[in-house]
Amino acid sequence: MRYAMRIRKQHLVHARTCVYNVNYHLVWSVKYRHPFLTTKIEERLKEVCHDFAKDKDFILHKIEVGEQDHVHVFVSGHPKIAPCYMAKMLKGISARKLFVEYPELKKMLERPFMEWQLLSRDHWVYFRRKHQKIYRSTTERGWLLMMMTMTAYQFKLAPTPEQREQIYHTLNLCRWLYNSGLEQRMIAYEKQGKCLSFYTQKKELPALKKVLPEFKGIHSQVLQNVPERLDGAYQNFFRRVKTGEKAGFPRFKGRNHYHSFTYPQSGFKIEGNFLTLSKIGKIQINRHRVMKGQVKTCQIIHKNGQFLVSFSCEINARKLKKKNQRAVGIDLGVRHLAITSDGNFHDNPKHLQQLEHKLKKKQRLVSKKKRGSNRRKKAVHQLAKLHEHIANKRKDTAHQTARNLVDAYDLLVFEDLDIQKMVKSHDYAKSIVDSAWRKLIDYTTYKAAKAGKQVLLVNPYNTTQQCSNCLEIVRKTKGERVHRCRCGYVDDRDVNAAKNILRLVLEQIA
Ligand SMILES: [Zn+2]
Predict the structure, then answer these.
(1) How far away, in angstroms, is 503 Cα from ligand 1 center?
(2) DSSP for 127-145?
(3) CA of 470 to the centre of ligand 1 (A)
(4) Ligand 1 mean position, distance from CA 468 (Å)
């Protein structure tokens, strides 16, 4: 059976002192969601999985079939077993057995030999990045790790006036298609209780081109990408509902909220300082840096008056280094962005705070102007630019800090923010800090993957309170910056926490 698999949410944690969580909620679905898990096949699949889990050293807590086209699997295992190993073994064994026992399956799955995908959206111990594809899985028992990481490169474009028109035109039509697709899905659900798949919507595109010939002026893959995006928005919505986050339903996109279109495989060519786009033409491009790896997709962005292109490239990650010679625990903070267990402090340059007065000024300017006026438009544009500027600065800091960390260490251990979210309450300022933390962890993870290094996450429970020297709990208030223990150990509060974070992982790995 071919499955597209997503990691929905790691459900945590039996013992609060347990190191990194190894409970996973996997969602498998067959490519294009063919509904074929009828009763007998469903029963057999469950049996196969249970038997298999008993053989290997992981626990299958529960397996549920939803709407005959996808399966929810709840598994957990020792931290040493990579989750992709569990997933892959489960898939392999169930596919082999079911195909033999039910030969009609092969007919039901149109393209059974297509490569299955593993899409890990956000929660993954080893590989957190959205676009990482895992071709071969690993354990620490001699399996080979081959991992591809995706990196994006962004360049400025200089289109001619005609090309600009063509880009606006494409954006408008794509936006129209997106909105109609959303409407179609909503109606289908209301009237028939059906969830349209993106595959169904994609199949309707040729017919659409016949009725509305202006769509012939757009590259076919660019069009196909639109229902795919819509599907992504739906999947994200369902995920948020499941995990209990604030779940906004996918929205209709207004003129100022649809910024880009994508060539997912072909239709674009890079030659020197020119990018040739199918149906648009040869555009000058400012390639200020060299791209590494193989270019996979090309996204054209029009935002805040700028034309940009973003290429995502696939890069071979290096094999994991066998020994983690230089291990470090990293505590994330507000005063300093990152504090390492060996006592290094990485600054947090509070970009928002520095530019807050400017931001307030710009916001005031917007609110003073009359709605719909040209002056207001101008003010809104300036405000958007400033927001972008702040976001860029924040990203830049995260990139630099991540680079420094990856260069200096081989095994990097962070606290798992999702657990922290459960523990602490959030206000707005926190969520900003939070986003900087998340960026830092994400960037570090993919930079580490490229360099053959490893990032792990631990449950941060009690890491601040515990003494890293004698493990005694030493209660501290929020303002107390120094950790003072009865055993005589004195250290910075955050350094002590970072030491605890590292210790938790080293204990488990040893
Ligand atoms: Zn102590």
Answers:
(1) 14
(2) ---TT-EEEE---TTTPPP
(3) 4
(4) 7
Q: Which CATH superfamily is domain 3-145 in?
A: Transposase IS200-like (3.30.70.1290)
Residues having C-beta closer than 5 Å to ion ligand 1? 467, 469-470, 472, 485, 487, 489
Residue 31 half-sphere exposure, CB side, CA atoms within 13 Å? 13
Q: 420: CA distance to ligand 1 center in Å?
A: 24
How many angstroms separate the alpha carbon of residue 483 from the centre of ligand 1?
9
Confirm whether 3-145 and 327-348+400-509 share one CATH topology: no
- CA separation for the pair 243, 323 (Å, rounded): 36
- What are the pLDDT digits (tens) for 372-405? 899 999 999 999 999 889 888 888 999 999 999 9
Q: How far is the CA of 314 from the centre of ligand 1 (A)?
A: 47
Each domain of the chain, given as residue ranges in start order, spans 3-145, 153-316, 327-348+400-509
CA distances from 234 to 67, 188, 199, 241, 256 (A): 16, 14, 14, 11, 21
* Whole-structure pTM value: 0.58
